Structure formats: C-alpha cells, structure tokens
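Hey, does this match?
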Amino acid sequence: MPYAPIIGVLGYVLHPDGERALMVFRSRDGDLHQGKYNGLGGKLENDEDVIGCLHRELMEEAGITVTAERLRGTISWPGFGAGGEDWFGFIFIVDAFTGTVPERNDDGPLDWLPINRLLGRGEPLPMWPGDRHFLQLVFDDDPRPFHGVMPYVDGVATGWSYRR
C-alpha cells in the first residue's frame, strides 16, 4: 500500500527572552492529545504550502503573525492518528512574530514554558513520550535539519530514528 500520510506542521514559538516556547495544554474533550502539552500547528490544506500552513495555523491558534521561522526537521509518524492514520510533519521554530498571544484557544490554555522543561530537565511535563526524542533536535545548536521516523502502534511510539 502506498504511503499517503496526512501532512501537517508543528511550530515552537520562541518567547522574545529566548528561554521559553509557546505550548498549548490540550484539554478539549475527545482530542487525541487531551491532557498533553503540544506545540501549535495542524493539517496542510489543499491550496497551501507548509510555510503558509504554519502562518495560518499560528494566526488561528495564537493570534500571531509569524515574521521569521526556521525549518528544524521533518518527522514521519506512521500509525499515529486516532484511527491509525499516518502523519508527516514539518517541524519549525518561530523566531519572531507580531501580535498578542491570548490566554487560551479552542484546544486549551496557552503557556510560555521553559525550554529546559520541554527537554526533560526539572519536573516532567505531560507530553507525548516520543516528543522528548525530537525536541532535543528542535532546540539544539546544529543548523542542519533532521529527518526522522517514529512509528506508532495503538497510540504508543515503537521506535525512533533520524538523520541529518
């Protein structure tokens, strides 16, 4: 069967202090991500490229206009969706934006969390366990993008590999 994933974007918006990133605590009933912190983003629409998708999603989810972004990597998540759908994501850091971030969006509260906590330092955050693997690469100093695969079976990551 051909690989036909849902294409999405995931953005980590840096606070002007450079020490925190904007996250949403997903609390909507029935949400696959309920009870977890996640970056902002969503599905690519038929008429847009991935940068346009990132800009649209961050306007919709955080009320901000992206003025500078960096592609940090891509991840294939076979079997990740609620029905076992495959996902392929473009992962970005947003270095600059205009606008004021609200306290919450339709998915849940928005919060500026210390990057060190996202990287597993200090008290653990409720997140997808697999995120801890790739967030190290999102926030490291290596300028090369990473390209990874993280298969899922029944909602659990069964592996992780990447290349740069």
About this structure: The chain has one domain: 6-163.
